[in-house]
């Protein structure tokens, strides 16, 4: 198991990222994902900047929808940690049990039809191209 870098043990570089996570998320909590990748500060910095930009910057996709997308990808990729953390975040942003169930039904359906399309090597219809 990877060593988790606590704030008190962290270098100044890591503490700066932790402080930004806390400020951005308005919490004192730093989760184990960040503590684990803090073992390589450049990866911590790069990953936090990307997550911060994609998940918190204003845009056309609202914060709850971003979490739902993240959960869907995490389910497909089989990332238990990401499923748990983004489900908690989704619930904090308004996701309820019914929405979660609908999301998982969509993920399951998409995975089934994707595998069928790939297995049968179905050519893309002309009307679907360049949309």
From TrEMBL:
InterPro entries, A to Z: AhpD-like, AhpD_core, CMD-like
Presence of keyword Oxidoreductase: yes
Gene Ontology molecular functions: peroxiredoxin activity
SUPFAM superfamilies: AhpD-like (SSF69118)
Keyword set, alphabetical order: Oxidoreductase, Peroxidase
DNA-binding listed as a keyword: no
Pfam families according to UniProt: CMD
Domain Carboxymuconolactone decarboxylase-like: 42-121
Superkingdom, taxonomy of origin: Bacteria
NCBIfam families, per database record: ahpD_dom
Name this polypeptide is given: Alkylhydroperoxidase
Organism: Tolypothrix tenuis PCC 7101
């Amino acid at each position: 198991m990877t060593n988790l870098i606590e704030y008190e043990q962290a270098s100044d570089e890591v503490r700066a990222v932790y402080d930004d996570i806390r400020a951005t998320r308005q919490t004192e909590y730093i989760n184990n994902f960040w503590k684990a990748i803090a073992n390589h500060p450049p990866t911590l910095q790069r990953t936090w900047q990307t997550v911060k930009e994609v998940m918190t910057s204003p845009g056309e996709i609202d914060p709850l929808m971003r979490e739902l997308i993240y959960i869907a990808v995490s389910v497909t990729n089989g990332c238990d940690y990401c499923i748990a953390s983004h489900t908690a975040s989704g619930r904090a942003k308004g996701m309820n049990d019914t929405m979660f169930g609908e999301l998982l039904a969509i993920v399951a359906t998409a995975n089934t039809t994707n595998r069928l399309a790939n297995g049968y090597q179905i050519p893309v219809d002309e009307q679907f191209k360049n949309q």
